[in-house]
Design a protein that fits this description.
- The protein is mainly alpha-helical and 389 residues long.
- The protein has a single domain, classed as Growth Hormone, Chain: A, CATH 1.20.1250.20.
- Helix content is 83%, strand content 0%.
- Helix 1 runs antiparallel to helix 5, helix 1 packs parallel to helix 6 and helix 9 runs antiparallel to helix 14.
- It is globular.
- The chain starts with a helix and ends in a 9-residue tail after the last helix.
- The relative contact order is 0.16.
Amino acid sequence: MDRQISLSILIRFLIYFVHWMVLAHLPVLLKQQGFDDVAVGLVIGLFALSSMLLMLPMGLFSDFFSPRRTLLTGALSFALYFFLLPRATTLGSLLPVVLLGGLGAAALIVVSESLYLKQFGQERRGRRVALYHLSTYLGFGLGPLAGGFLLRSGLLFPAASLGALLIFGVVLGIEDHSVRVFAFRDYGEDLRQFKPLMLMACIFMLGTHFGVEQTSISLLMRETLHFTPERIGLYFAVVGLWMAAVVPFVGHLHDKRSTVFLFFLAGLGLSAFFQALTALAFDFWSLLVIRMLHTLGDAVALLEFSVLTALFFPARRLGGNSGVLYAVRTLATFGAAVLTGIVNHRWSYGASFLVNGLFVLLFVGLSFTLIATNPQRRLEVGWGNRDDA
């Protein structure tokens, strides 16, 4: 089991390392190719939308067919996506390439996590999920740092393709999960209750800030703060390593708490507050401090998202239900990315962070009110009693 956990964690690291090695610099590269802010937002949003459309099918496919084979398909799709991306120089030629990248992202991101939670997420949840997220944040931090240096040598996209093929090789070493037959209506019954519905609403809000970040953060650093590609990579590295450092403590704190859902909302609120303050950043250090505090909230919210997913849904249907949650999150990412492009074009890159932060803060306040004013809802989320959620 220890070897399987290690391989699963390595796969997750490689997925995020390769994904963010390109994505962190893609808005800047698109701008350099002559795309305006609206087009950049549209391209980033289309990638998210194509992923969203495929996340539910990929999750269901892994439940009914084979998680490992689904991951292998995703890795090959990702490799081809990175190979074709620099060769697509018009918006029309980008669309099929983005669709292919969405297929790879949907298969890799959703199925890798659902397979891990199926196999290892039910015992010592906080620590095991925290360790898994640590690998995610290391990939998120070190990928853009490597990408910043690879841009100088023109090797960014070949390196990303090779990284995707490395994912394929590592996936060959993991054990598959047994496939069980059950009815599709069981998924509807899983999702029809208050806690899963509330979780979907929270994930939607979390997704909006990902859309803003993926569209604006690199452009804010490049166009407004005038960072070099290496400086942008350094920013991502510091933030990623910071999240990797704090997530074990978040996992330990999780294991001592009974109100996991409220912990999730608190993390979302902290993230939103410093998302809004990002608009005030004026140099590298001010941006770094604000974003480190922002990502502290992210670390809490994302860990609790994984824990609550494992808590709310049966392991045998975790792929399909995870696909629904990721699809909801990615739908929000798509919408926010497109709107962010419009906001950036009309106002500034900082304005999109301010608007999004205030929007999510309003949602958190309404959610606490919705729970606090109803005794049954308080009971369901463990407010005032020893409940897991």
